[in-house]
């Protein structure tokens, strides 16, 4: 018996099908980048931009510049996302960077801060600092 | 009917290429699945938060991976860095300084690499922000301002 092409093709198709099905289920570790708040070193003029502050309460409620937007049970944060999209659009028109600081309550869950960082990533806002208000 | 082993009646069994390729491909699939599982299990006790919009991991620079564990039964957090456990964030400053010094040396030896050292925080989704803040404060005290948070694309 020589080389049989039919079982070979059969096996290759089964493997291809396996990878096509598994591709959607693969868990991939990703990252959300931030900078720590701190001092800057500059000998020239420093331009100050309007800073947007997103607060997270101990219960998980999210506020933008002290205005409550999303309740604690909403992980998708639709109101915050919509506001950030508009903010980014208007800042792009004005050619100004959007600077955002996340202020989290120390007892708020870390996953809530990640929800906010995820909303910022969806609005393509990259100048983000994360700060926890320690008593 | 002499001889066994599934060979032909003539005696010597033929070498079959199709089952050989079949077995090799199954082994290949096995190793591919195992490898991706090992990459994810950096610290099995940590349940990472979900962020579908997060960006792809940047592997082009030197980094220190800080794992922040959470035990819901005792309500205590432990930081795992380089397989050593730290109860307080302040104890992490010196190991992070050493990791940064080593990372800076490695980056200097590879001129094409991004020279800025960073800390990747792998925090459990249920840990209070206060404990993640301790790891961030330790990074700041070690002179590292670039922080990335790990998350998975789905549950």
Commentary on this structure:
The complex is a heterodimer of chains A (135) and B (155). With 135 residues, chain A is an alpha/beta fold. Chain A has a single domain (31-132), classed as Nucleotidyltransferase, domain 5. Helix content of chain A is 36%, strand content 24%. Chain A has helices at residues 5-23, 78-93, 110-122; strands at 29-35, 51-56, 62-64, 67-70, 99-104, 127-132. In chain A, strands 4-3-2-5-6 form a 5-stranded mixed β-sheet, covered by helices on one side. In chain A, helix 2 (78-93) crosses helix 3. The model of chain A has no long low-confidence stretch (mean pLDDT 84). With 155 residues, chain B is of the alpha/beta class. Chain B has a 5-stranded mixed β-sheet. The longest helix of chain B is centred in the N-terminal third of the chain and has 24 residues, at 17-40. Chains A and B meet through helix 1, strand 1 and helix 3 of A and helix 1, helix 3 and strand 5 of B.
Task: Give a short summary of the structure.
The complex is a heterodimer of chains A (135) and B (155). With 135 residues, chain A is α/β, with parallel strands linked by helices. Chain A has three helices and six strands; from the N terminus they run αββββαβαβ.
What is this structure's SSE topology?
The complex is a heterodimer of chains A (135) and B (155).
Chain A: H1 5-23, E1 29-35, E2 51-56, E3 62-64, E4 67-70, H2 78-93, E5 99-104, H3 110-122, E6 127-132
Parallel strand pairs in A: 2-5, 5-6
Antiparallel strand pairs in A: 2-3, 3-4
Helix pairs in contact in A: 2-3
Chain B: H1 17-40, E1 61-71, E2 76-81, E3 84-86, H2 93-109, E4 114-123, H3 129-141, E5 146-152
Parallel strand pairs in B: 1-4, 4-5
Antiparallel strand pairs in B: 1-2, 2-3
């Amino acid at each position: 018996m020589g080389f049989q092409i039919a079982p070979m093709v059969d096996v290759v198709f089964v493997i291809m099908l396996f990878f096509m099905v598994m591709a959607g289920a693969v868990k991939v570790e990703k990252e959300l980048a931030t900078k720590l708040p701190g001092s800057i070193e500059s000998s020239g003029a420093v331009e100050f931009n309007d800073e947007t502050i997103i607060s997270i309460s101990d219960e998980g409620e999210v506020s933008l510049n002290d205005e409550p937007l999303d309740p604690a049970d909403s992980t998708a944060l639709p109101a915050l996302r919509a506001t950030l999209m508009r903010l980014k659009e208007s800042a792009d028109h004005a050619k100004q960077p959007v600077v955002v600081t996340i202020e989290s309550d120390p007892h708020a869950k870390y996953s809530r801060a990640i929800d906010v960082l995820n909303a910022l990533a969806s609005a393509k806002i990259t100048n983000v600092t994360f700060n926890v208000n320690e008593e | 009917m002499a001889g066994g082993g599934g060979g032909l009646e003539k005696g010597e069994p033929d070498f079959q290429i199709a089952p050989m390729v079949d077995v090799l491909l199954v082994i290949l699939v096995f190793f591919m699945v195992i490898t991706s599982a090992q990459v994810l299990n950096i610290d099995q006790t940590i349940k990472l938060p979900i962020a579908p919009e997060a960006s792809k991991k940047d592997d082009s620079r030197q980094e220190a991976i800080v794992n922040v564990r959470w035990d819901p039964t005792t309500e205590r957090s432990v930081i795992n860095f380089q397989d050593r456990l730290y109860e307080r964030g302040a104890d992490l400053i010196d190991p992070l300084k050493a990791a940064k010094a080593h990372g800076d040396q490695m980056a200097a030896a590879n001129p094409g690499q991004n020279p800025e050292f960073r800390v990747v925080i792998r925090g459990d989704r249920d840990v209070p922000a206060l404990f993640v803040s301790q790891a961030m404060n330790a990074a700041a005290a070690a002179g590292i301002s670039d922080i990335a948070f790990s998350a998975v694309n789905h549950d």
